[in-house]
Specification:
globular; mainly alpha
Length: about 220
């Protein structure tokens, strides 16, 4: 279906039914939810990493700013690359490179020293590329829904994607609180080994697991 050919207005219930009937759309939204639950944990836990694991908060503000700038830079870099080589290769590169970066960070954490702060902008750069691919794929999913249900749902699908991601971020924050509590974390205190393990799990392990879960879904939705 060509964009714009189907222009009749639809009710929210009609749109919801069209989305619920599309296995492709359900898979896409579920994986976007997994992404939203796991990926933000890295930045949420960075202050905990700085204070309790790295034991140096001096460069935290600059590091968070560098991570944000790197995400914006990634859009400028990966968008033309995706246009030239396709979104699937770009998305797979970002999704595979993130867990590799996090695994190396976890393995070399004691020896990183001040280089620890370089991990954040590197992660932000790859994260920006992955986010770009996820949002750019929404148009393909809307096209598929149009073919299956004969309705255009572009704006509605983007609204649904935003809702899923907001819910995912909230679930991730709740998960972080539960895991920290299970590790007996105490703010401002010298942390027990279980609390340090909880921080590392949230900051490095869960984002890596979330990123690894997405390449299979990227292939399944046939990102082009």
């Amino acid at each position: 279906a060509e964009r714009g050919r189907i222009s009749q207005p639809i009710s929210p219930l009609h749109f919801l039914a069209a989305v619920m009937r599309s296995r492709l759309a359900i898979l896409y939204l579920c994986m976007a939810g997994v992404f939203a639950i796991t990926m933000p944990l890295f930045s949420k836990m960075l202050p905990f990493m700085a204070r309790y694991v790295h034991e140096n908060e001096g460069g935290l503000g600059a590091t968070l700013a560098a991570m944000t700038i790197a995400q914006m830079l990634a859009v400028a870099v990966f968008t033309p690359l995706a246009h030239r080589f396709g979104r699937l290769p770009v998305g797979l590169f970002c999704l595979v490179a993130m867990p590799v970066l996090l695994a190396v960070t976890l393995a070399m954490l004691p020896a990183l020293g001040d280089a620890f702060w370089l991990v954040s902008p590197a992660f932000g750069f790859l994260l920006g590329g992955a986010i770009m691919v996820i949002w750019a794929t929404a148009g393909d999913i809307a096209d598929q829904i149009a073919i299956e249900a004969a309705v255009r749902t572009d704006a509605g699908l983007l609204a649904f994607l935003t809702l899923v991601q907001k819910a995912g971020i909230g679930i991730g924050a709740m998960l972080a609180g539960m895991i920290l509590e299970s590790g007996h974390f105490q703010a401002g205190a010298i942390q027990h080994a279980d609390a340090l393990d909880a921080i590392l799990t949230l900051a490095l392990v869960l984002p890596a697991v979330g990123a690894l879960a997405l390449p299979a879904a990227s292939v399944a939705v046939k990102v082009k």
